[in-house]
Amino acid sequence: IMVPGLSREGIRGALPLERQSGVDGMDMRRAFPKVCLVGHFDKMAMENGTLFTSLDDLPLALEANQSFLMLSELTGNRQGVGSALNNIGSVYQNLSDYQSALDYMSRALKVFEEIDFKPFIANATSNLGMIYKSLKQHEQAVKFLERGVALQREVGHKLFASNMQATLGQV
User: In whole angstroms, what is the distance from residue 48 CA to residue 6 CA?
Assistant: First the structure.
């Protein structure tokens, strides 16, 4: 399995390992030197995606978050899958590719709802409101922003709720 962002390091594939499997990682590294042993690589890819986004290196942020998505899917990390989809949606939003942003953010919301993770449901819902606002789809923007404000308050994110309320006033 090719993993974007790791291939330039000479890593040609990924082998998911469960920590509790009892497999000796060092033996595996010696036996398969060009195989990436997935453990915390999904978190590393996520952090690199966040770093590249903050540095405005959006192509690298997109690549790192796509790696994060692939590794999260490989390891069955549903929260990671949702976070990666959310991050990719945010990168596309920053690139003004609102249709792609809408696609990824909608998928993120669906994952967060499936695992019933309210803080991330609140964030994805608010982000969708912002994307609809950018698309000038005011009815949808209001619908998602109002829901986002309510969810942000419900999970105790008063500052985010206040910011979304202010954005709602601009629609």
Answer: 12
pTM: 0.69
Helix (H, G, I), strand (E, B) or coil at 50: helix
What confidence category does residue 77 fall into, taking pLDDT thresholds of 50, 70 and 90? Answer: confident
Type of residue numbered 168: L
Mean pLDDT, range 18-37, rounded to an integer: 47
Contact of 161 with 152, CB cutoff 8 Å: yes
Distance CA 167, CA 171 (A): 7
Type of residue numbered 94? N
Q: Where are the alpha helices (DSSP H) in the chain?
A: 25-31, 41-54, 58-75, 78-94, 98-114, 118-134, 138-154, 158-170
94: alpha, beta or left? (left if phi > 0; alpha if psi -120 to 50): alpha
